[in-house]
Amino acid sequence: MITRRSSKQIQIGDVKIGGGAPISVQSMCNTDTRDVEATVSQIKQLQEAECELVRLAVLNKDAAAAIKEIKKQVTIPLIADIHFDYRLAIQCIENGIDALRLNPGNIGREENVKKVVALAKTNNIPIRIGINAGSLDKNIAALDLPLHEKMVKSAMQHIAILEDNGFDKIKISLKSSSVVTTIEAYRLMAQKVDYPLHLGLTESGTLNGGLVKSAIGIGTLLAEGIGDTIRVSLTENPVEEVYAGYSILKSLEIRQHGVNFISCPTCGRCRIDLIGLAKKVENALKNVNKPITVAVMGCPVNGPGEAKHADYGVAGAIGEGYIFKKGEIIKRVAEKDILNELLHLINNDN
Prior knowledge:
The model has no long low-confidence stretch (mean pLDDT 92). The chain has two domains: 10-251, Alpha-Beta Barrel (TIM Barrel); 260-348, Sulfite Reductase Hemoprotein, domain 1 (2-Layer Sandwich). By secondary structure, it is α/β, with parallel strands linked by helices. It has helices at 36-48, 61-73, 86-94, 110-122, 138-141, 147-164, 179-192, 207-223, 238-251, 274-284, 303-306, 338-348, and strands at residues 10-12, 15-17, 24-28, 53-57, 78-81, 99-101, 127-132, 170-175, 198-199, 229-230, 260-263, 293-297, 312-316, 320-325, 328-334. It is elongated and about 75 Å long.
């Protein structure tokens, strides 16, 4: 069992983060925030995938103004991603945003920081300090230090600004496109503060490569007990980020969310289209939120035996399949009927 790092707890909308709360899964819309209809549509798709927090890019005052209408149409907590202009942060708070992602050191003079912090305190709005390895302050970037130390140093400076203004509803992220740099940065930060940590790699890549890098980086830290909320950043439909996030948590047995899907890699004994079948079964069960394990196995030799711990499954034979439940074969069906028979069993079994 993984022992988690002790941290303070903050709350974004109705989602608790840190302090022993379940590790939450979040994503970010890739729509133009000014396009309310498109943004609301994507948020609702993310909600259907059980996303728990959604971040929106706020590039200008029109995007900040759109927050008010978007909030009316969705129930999931929203986080505004803001750079440089403190007025956008104030406008988003006034329009009902649930949290901010910004760096207090790049939103202007100290008096402007105080305005944002004062309003955030009054409205109970947490702030995530988001450090990216590729966009460090020039003075910090020029230091003769390892990159992960520069990232932590930058974060500590931003934390000090908020703390000096009496603000402690803080969450921290330290993202790099390098798995090793990301892991080292979070490990070091975890030793320095007890604020909750948001895990992720930035610019991790497309679906296949990005999943591998994110699983290694985020998974390593979670296995060490570090991390309170996660985002798997992918060059892909953001809904895939949510599925990936829950897959990482399930793999580490941190959160059992939805179906635990297992399948064998196939071999020369396989006499059905196992790869095609496995993809169809996994896709059909994506939004099934039952805490069950489903196995798709290539042959009777390894099927019910190796997957006897599965709640439901199928083992392929020559042009047919054996449907099994808890390791016991209950039906033999033609290959063309495997998918429907298996799904019927899963969906209708009490």
